[in-house]
Amino acid sequence: MKRHLVNSIICDILILGGGVAGAAAALAAAREGAAVILAEKSGRLGGTATNGLVSTLCGCYSSLPGRRKIIGGFRDILAKELLRYGGIAEGVDRDTHRNDTCDPELLACALDALMQRHGVQLMLSTCVIDASFSGRSLHSVEVVNTESGARCAILPRLAVDASGGALLAKMADPASAVSGGVEGKLQAATMVFRMDCVDGDRARLVTKEQIRELLAEARLNGDVTGERGNGVLTVLPGNSSAIVNANWVKADMSLPEDVTRGLVEGREKALENARFFRKYVPGFENAILSSIAPSLGVREASRIRGAYVLSEEDITEGRRFDDEISLGSWPMEYHDYEQNKLVYLWSDKDYSIPYRCLLPNGLENVLAAGRNISVSSMAYASTRVMGPCMAIGQAAGTAVRLCIETGILPKELDGKLLRKTLIDEGAILE
User: Fold this and answer.
1) How far apart are CA 368 and CA 325, in angstroms?
2) For each successive 10 residues of the chain (430 residues), what is the average pLDDT?
3) Are residues 211 and 314 both part of a single domain?
4) Least buried of 32, 87, 355, 379, by fewest C-beta within 10 Å?
5) Which residues constitute the domain of residue 309?
6) What is the CA radius of gyration of the chain?
């Protein structure tokens, strides 16, 4: 029997995915009053930063001496909003890098406020179930609200796919998306968790090397069975809570059975990790496990094949592009579950990401944003973190806004004009 949609919605710009890339895209797209819809499958914005409890906004600062800030624009707007809530510590120096630390719950609230203030139409708990195409153009996206079961069709003029898995490219033509990492293997995921009643002053002094040594001791004592031999903790603003990232989970999120197995297995590993932290790690003696992330922290999924593929060599050689839309400096951080190792490949130069990486092959009115842009497997291990994703999202949202204003397609947009506009609106590209 044919399904009947409840209604159809026409808009200028549709953003799929409400992680930090999608939120940045929505805010940039709505800047001059365009009708923007942001559809997100979960009940709140922030993606891995909120639903995955990943509290560190990595990649916002250069890895080079001085560690200057290299991500501005949307990042600065978000930081200002979070400061109102007391939910961010900016420029926190770690042993290998600098990052912004935020409270995941307050981050979700800050993103809500920003979207409402700037006129973005939010559609939360909204999953994509189908899409229709006319030649090389997206025509409509069918969505369902997971709470009510109501369906509708969204008809945008332009769209930004910030789904994290190149959803629209796969629907248009599976051959236009790339799945799998190095030799077809995906990076390990992680089930992140939060502990409260932490002595933040003592916990903040614990290094990754200390955690590595304590995990080795716990493994010899039979208190730890997990594969990962390292981990990190992040003390949140307020000094009495910490986010812990200390396990690896093998899961291909394109396979339904893997999703379920990964979530169940991840929660088991989080319980073991929490016991270890209470017993072995300074500052956690009286800590309680207060929250396990409702979503896995997924490090790798499908991405587009685009007009340009950013390579490992582009990163290691610090290449810059005339149509650059974001700087990057995060190492190529590859979590190899199969070989039980973590690989860091550092560059001695900052690099940039060109606009062409956002242009999917085979789709003319869609841009990619966030981690599903066109990059090689190892380049992906650097560009996937949240700092670049925010900048890429801002660039995608700005690009579709400029296209709406001038009546052109994304491939026709002058990359130098986009770069200048981004700089005028706070992005750091110099």
Assistant:
1) 13
2) 70 98 98 97 97 95 96 98 96 91 97 98 97 96 95 98 94 81 78 98 95 96 92 94 95 84 96 98 98 94 94 96 97 86 89 98 96 94 96 98 98 96 97
3) no
4) 32
5) 7-45+111-180+302-424
6) 21
